[in-house]
Structure formats: C-alpha cells, structure tokens
C-alpha cells in the first residue's frame, strides 16, 4: 500500500484522542491519590501503636530509641498471657461451632424451596437485624440462674448465637454460586444428598468456609460489650477487657497499653496471612470443564 492510500487522521480526531488520554491519566491519578489517602488513614494508627509500644517505659533507664521493655513488663507483671489464652479458647470454639452449624444450615437455605425454609430464612433475617445489645440483659438474667455469669462457657454461648445468623447467610450466599448441576451429576452416579453436599459442594466451598470462619473469629476476638457484661473475674478476662485495666483515673502508662494492643493485633494478622492464599474460586470453574 502506497503512502497516498494510507488513511489520514484529521487534526480534530487526534485532538480528541489526546484529550481522552489526558482525562484517563488524570482519572488514574485521582484514583491513586484516593487509595493512598485511604491506605494512610488505615495504616498510620497501626504504625503509631507499634511505634509507641517500642518506646522506653516511663521512668526507664533505657536510652535506646526502641526497646522491648514494655512487652517484658506486660508479660512479667500482668495476666496478659492468661487473657490471651482465654481469648484464643473462646474464639476457636466459637469458630468451630459456627462453621460446623452454618455449613449444613446454609446448604438447606440455599437449596431448599419449601415454605418451611422460607420461614427459616425470614427468621434468620429478623434475628440478624436485631442488635446484640437488645439480648444482653435477658441473657444475663438467664445465665445468672444457670451459673454461667463470669464464665468463659457463657460468653462462648453468646458469641456462637450472635454469629450464627450471619454465618448461615454467608454460607448460603456462597452455595448459591455453585451450580446445582454438579450435585445432579453426582446423584446420577449414586451419590446421596448428604454425600453430594460433603463431597461436591463443601469441597468447592473453601473460600466461603474461610470467610465465615474469619467473620466469627473477628466478632468474638474483638468483642468488648458482651465480655464486659458477663465477665467479672480477672482470671476470666479476655484481651479486650484486660486492656481497660491499664487505664487509671489520673494517669495511664501508654507504653503498656500499646504493647497489649500489639499482642491483640497479632493473631488476626497471622490468620489473614496464613489463609489468604486459600481464597480462590478456581476450583468451581475447573469442576465445570468439559460439561
């Protein structure tokens, strides 16, 4: 093709293209700036907590700019390790029970098409819409009669109940994304309904299970209201309640407070770091290959 037959770009079209490119670049910079500001707002408090926890304690003879003295004082002079153990026990039990109940209950909610299931779904929605504070006083009165006040067992029961409705909805929503044709193929091969749920649906629901587990973990790990109402003894405290014991009326040792805050932040960070690689839905697409 000769140069005379090549299509020519008019100056007006070239100007419009340049303007569009400039607007696209400007939009990218705006998005980058917004993300940078949001990230800074999120990270700066965490960096401040870690920084203050590494500062020398009040009245300390340490001259180094950073030290682990606050952590040593917290572990040696307080019950932080016991509170950490209580929080881990309560949280792990809550996660296991919530996932074990929500997985089959969510399957019924996702695959069921009866009036009973519809009523069950409506009941879950109503329970989910009610704040937990509305049930704290009646539960306290009931648990006082059952000797479950100031008990980790009682707190665990409340945590399991408060996470269950949302956990079931989360599992049902994930099951809805799994084609029922996979189960029908298994049924044709002689697999029972329960076998299809365990061997087909549940095997492809790892991201949903992990999301539900993390939700239950964070709700019970960070809870302050329920633990404040139901726990009375220092040896039964969880970490959120233990932190408040460092606040005095006239003075507060912020180094110790920040050290406990760092200890409290570590388990969620570790959980997210370990489980992050499992958040993938590729298995579902692979199961549909060739169908």
Description:
The chain is mostly helical and 291 residues long. It has 13 helices and no strands. Helix 2 crosses helix 12. The C terminus is likely disordered. Keywords: Cell membrane, Membrane, Transmembrane, Transmembrane helix, Transport. Its main location: membrane. It is found in: Cell membrane.
Describe the global form.
flat
Radius of gyration: 27 Å
Percent of residues in helices? over 70%
- The H/E string reads HHHHHHHHHHHHH
Q: Using DSSP, what is the number of strands?
A: 0
Structural class: mainly alpha
Q: According to CATH, what is the topology of the largest domain?
A: MetI-like fold
What is the CATH homology-level superfamily of the largest domain? MetI-like
* Uncertain parts: 281-291
Count of domain modules: 2
Q: Per CATH, which architecture of the largest domain?
A: Orthogonal Bundle
Largest sheet: none
Average pLDDT, to the nearest integer? 82
User: How many H/I helices?
Assistant: 13
Transmembrane segments: 32-54, 88-110, 122-144, 156-174, 208-231, 252-275
Organism: Occultella gossypii
Membrane topology: Multi-pass membrane protein
Pfam families: BPD_transp_1
Task: Break the fold down into its secondary structure elements and pairings.
Blueprint: H1 11-53, H2 69-77, H3 80-111, H4 115-129, H5 133-145, H6 152-176, H7 180-188, H8 193-201, H9 206-222, H10 225-230, H11 239-244, H12 254-275, H13 282-287
Compose a concise summary of this entry.
This protein is an all-alpha fold and 291 residues long. It is built from 13 helices and no strands.
């Amino acid at each position: 093709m000769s140069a005379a037959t090549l299509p020519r770009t008019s100056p007006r079209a070239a100007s419009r293209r340049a303007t569009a490119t400039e607007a696209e670049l400007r939009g990218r910079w705006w998005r980058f700036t917004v993300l940078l500001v949001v990230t800074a707002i999120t990270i700066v408090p965490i960096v401040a907590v870690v920084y203050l926890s590494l500062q020398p304690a009040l009245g300390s003879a340490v001259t180094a700019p950073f030290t682990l003295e606050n952590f040593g004082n917290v572990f040696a002079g307080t019950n932080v390790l016991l509170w950490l153990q209580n929080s881990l026990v309560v949280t792990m039990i809550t996660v296991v029970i919530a996932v074990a109940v929500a997985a089959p209950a969510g399957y019924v909610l996702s695959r069921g098409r009866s009036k009973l299931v519809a009523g069950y779904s409506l009941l879950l929605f109503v329970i989910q819409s009610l704040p937990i504070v509305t049930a704290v006083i009646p539960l306290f009165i009931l648990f006082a009669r059952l000797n479950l006040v100031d008990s980790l067992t009682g707190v665990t029961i409340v945590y399991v109940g408060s996470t269950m409705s949302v956990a079931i909805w989360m599992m049902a929503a994930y099951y809805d994304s799994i084609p029922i044709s996979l189960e029908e193929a298994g049924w044709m091969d002689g697999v029972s309904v329960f076998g299809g749920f365990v061997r087909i649906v549940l095997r492809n629901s790892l991201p949903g299970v992990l999301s539900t587990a993390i939700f239950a973990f964070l709700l019970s790990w960070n809870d302050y209201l329920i633990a404040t109402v139901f726990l009375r003894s220092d040896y039964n405290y969880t970490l959120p309640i233990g932190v408040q014991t460092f606040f005095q009326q006239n003075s507060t040792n912020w180094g110790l407070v920040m050290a406990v805050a760092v200890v409290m932040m570590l388990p969620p960070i570790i959980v997210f770091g370990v489980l992050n690689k499992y958040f993938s839905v590729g298995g579902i697409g692979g199961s549909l290959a060739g169908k």
